[in-house]
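Table 4 source record.
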Amino acid sequence: MIGRHDQSRLSPVEPPALVGSLLGKQIVHACKALIVVLILPAAALAQSSIDQARAIAGNPPSTSQRSILADLPRPTGKATALFDGRSLTGWQPWLGYADPAVTYRANPAEKPIGTRRTLSGDFAVRQMDGAPAIWIKGQTWGSLVQLADLRDDHLRLQYKWGAKTWPPRVGQPPNNGLLYHTHGAPGEVFGTWQPSVEFEIMKGSTGMAVTVGASVRARTTVAFDPSLIAPHLWFRVGGRQIDMVNGTATWNVEAATDAERPIGQWNMLDLYVLGDRAIHVVNGVPVAEVRDLATIAPDGTRQPLTHGHIQLQSEGAETWFRAITVEPIRTLPRVVVAR
């Protein structure tokens, strides 16, 4: 398994121009994917990014942490199925560029595919393990957007990896994502996604929190771990508070633990959202908590982000989704450290 400690994994950030101001002339990681431009030796980069992470989060904690959920909320209404098991009714597909390798270029000459072609070869309902599931091919990057405007809810879904991975991510961990509080225009982010908060689905890093789009913000608490790839931060109850900003040294926060099952098995994701707060749970294990979700308005003010659509990403790996339901809640569970 290639996971969170694999130093060859690339980091998903905004275009190189945004990164350069923070990392200097060292290395540019293009979002989850593509091109690594080496300007200084790798050792110099590692030292610089590690020093930066230590300054943000402090020295590594001396003890590990295992968290559990407490005070699970009771639903205040009936569960609603977002996938009817027969069709993609209620879902809107969108595709980015025909060649995913151009996705993170500042001004790619190509235009996104959008909905200009028949997309049944990219997203479909098929049988898997004796039951219907949403199949996402993953070869062309984009997303399947649920049209319901969701807020204050407990979202559940199951996913498992398919057999295929596609360039430019061949040989890298299979990658996808559950994007929530989605807003804005289709393709607004890199011609491929809409602004949102991401519940990462990546082998070794499922549950990682990412802000998708330059104007999206989220706060969380973190610890520093030099064995992680940059930005060397992961979620920790009681850790230092940070504001997550894409294109900076706090562009993502790694999941507290790798709770994903082996490839070939189904995984259960629970996403609890209440207002501008959210909790990411993987196979019953809370792995991240974010709050103060917001967008930055044109005048620079911070506007709470409390609702939106979800997106199931297509990002280089064949993926199956099923049993997608949502039910209303009025409270969030608590993430507590197990004793």
